[in-house]
Design goal:
171 residues, alpha+beta, 4-stranded antiparallel sheet, two-stranded antiparallel sheet, 3 helices
Length: 171
């Protein structure tokens, strides 16, 4: 019986040592990955917000700045999808003008340009998309993976910014 007891004790000790080793190595790995993901999210949010605010303050959402923002975001371990949407304020069909005053009736009308359409404008306009007062710029960066979760099937929005522009763009 003493031989059987020592085998059981040895097996128990081996399992316990294995659990301790796993605990010591795996848990810090997950914690570190979470910290990296959080830092990446903050950096991505900052880059997206800066791009949107700069585009609205300059009156120009240009391709070079957009690509620089994407490069900043994708410098981490994750893969991202970045989408831009520009809403161009159109003429209000219900606008009435009396002498020098303008009165708007109803909602404003926006023409929305999505990522591929914005890219077309960049291609045809030397990398510029001119923005005017009242236009809106919206950028969303999402990821389908994180540092340790490579099998995620859903996109997670990690950064998003929208701004209404207050200046008119110039050529």
């Amino acid at each position: 019986m003493s031989e059987r007891g020592s085998v059981f004790s040895g097996l128990t000790i081996a399992v316990l040592i294995g659990l301790v080793v796993v605990t010591i190595t795996v848990i810090p790995l997950f914690t570190t990955a979470d910290k990296v993901d959080n830092k990446t999210k903050v950096a991505a949010q900052t880059a997206v917000t800066d791009f949107v605010n700069e585009a609205c303050s300059k009156g120009d959402a240009n391709e070079q700045d957009f690509n620089k923002m994407i490069q900043t975001i994708t410098s981490g371990l994750n893969t991202y999808s970045v989408d831009i949407e520009v809403s161009v304020l159109g003429e209000n069909p219900g606008k009435k003008t009396q002498l020098a005053t303008t009165k708007r009736i109803g909602e404003n009308v926006y023409t929305i340009y999505y990522t591929s359409q914005v890219e077309d404008v960049w291609k045809n306009n030397g990398g510029k998309f001119l923005i005017n007062e009242g236009d809106k710029v919206h950028v969303v960066a999402s990821t389908s993976s994180s540092a340790l979760d490579q099998n995620a099937n859903t996109d997670k929005i990690i950064a998003e910014a929208t701004a209404t522009c207050t200046v008119n763009g110039k050529n």
